[in-house]
């Protein structure tokens, strides 16, 4: 019983480690070296856990049964497999870099580092690629947001007070201006929410574009300014923020502080019945998107319906994740990847789902590389 519990602790520790932490894996394996056997090391090797098998073989005591077999396995199979994977990912990383596909180069350099015994240079290369990814992301999102905001603000120039022949509070004129004000207020509100979300998810460069947009509409907001400072602090210092082209000022009345009841009631573009039909069809993402629209358009009992859809969606994602975990434990990697991809599609913000999928996809790729070489292709 004690050994089983210790083995479980070892399994939890090793699976929780990041992909490029082979030294940490070795340290954990060394701490539980009495569990290392030739059979367990061979099984690790056969299932693509090359660095774990290597760490276990290196930490095995010389007086332990199976030591000679293990060292032979290390020399003739484990080390060649490690070098094969290392060269594969390094070559792929260099190719992606030459092609300018920065995100692939970043991920492949990290993979190469996983199989390297001296990975500092590879991790540095991965960090350089990540910086390029972030810079392109910042440039692209910021340019789009600035153009969209400029267009929205320019529309205000087409609005003028009613002609003197009309009542200064002429209802159709007032309605048009209210509609534009609603749009601007929604834009500002959504930008602030997205800025906080993207900062929390580790995308400060996107959060910067969001908060700049918010402050364009609410320049005097103190909490907007504070969030801007937090975002700048989180951004890599090497990122360059493109200068904004000067634009002429627009006639923009101050944004109103309205309550939710101030918006004129209108018929939502989607009904509660349609949302429930999507739920019956188990089209959870479509149902969730429709429920969000229904809430934005002040549909009846929208908050309760959105909460119900979210709960059902999360339950479906959890079921897919559990199915993937069962498949992974049964060493059915392809099924695990399929199920975890579904879980991530349903809940892309769930870090546990994303991390498990990433590890499974890594293992799937490694086994593919090793099997391809073994089959002689």
Provide an overview of this structure.
The chain is mainly α. Among the domains are: about 1-100, no CATH class; about 120-160 and about 170-240, no CATH class. Helix content is about 70%, strand content about 0%. The protein has 15 helices and no strands. The chain has helices at about 1-15, 20-30, 40-45, 50-60, 65-100, 100-115, 120-155, 170-200, 205-215, 220-235, 270-280, 285-295, 300-330, 335-345, 350-375. Helix 3 runs antiparallel to helix 4, helix 7 runs parallel beside helix 9 (about 205-215) and helix 11 (about 270-280) runs antiparallel to helix 12. The chain is elongated and about 100 Å long. Residues about 1-25 and about 250-265 have low confidence and may be disordered.
Which tags fit this structure?
mainly alpha, 72% helix, elongated, 15 helices, 377 residues
Annotation, overall tally of beta strands? 0
Structural class: mainly alpha
Largest sheet: none
The N- to C-terminal Cα distance equals: 45 Å
Spell out the helices and strands N to C. HHHHHHHHHHHHHHH
> Which band does the percent of strand residues land in?
under 5%
Q: How many helices in DSSP terms?
A: 15
Mean pLDDT, rounded to whole units? 83
Parts with pLDDT < 50 across at least 5 consecutive residues: 1-23, 249-265
Q: What is the CA-atom radius of gyration, in angstroms?
A: 28 Å
Shape: elongated
The percentage helix is: over 70%
How are the secondary structure elements laid out?
Elements: H1 2-16, H2 22-31, H3 38-46, H4 50-59, H5 67-99, H6 102-114, H7 120-154, H8 171-200, H9 204-217, H10 222-234, H11 272-280, H12 284-296, H13 302-329, H14 333-346, H15 351-374
Helix pairs in contact: 2-4, 3-4, 3-5, 4-5, 5-6, 6-7, 7-9, 8-9, 8-10, 9-10, 11-12, 12-13, 13-14, 14-15
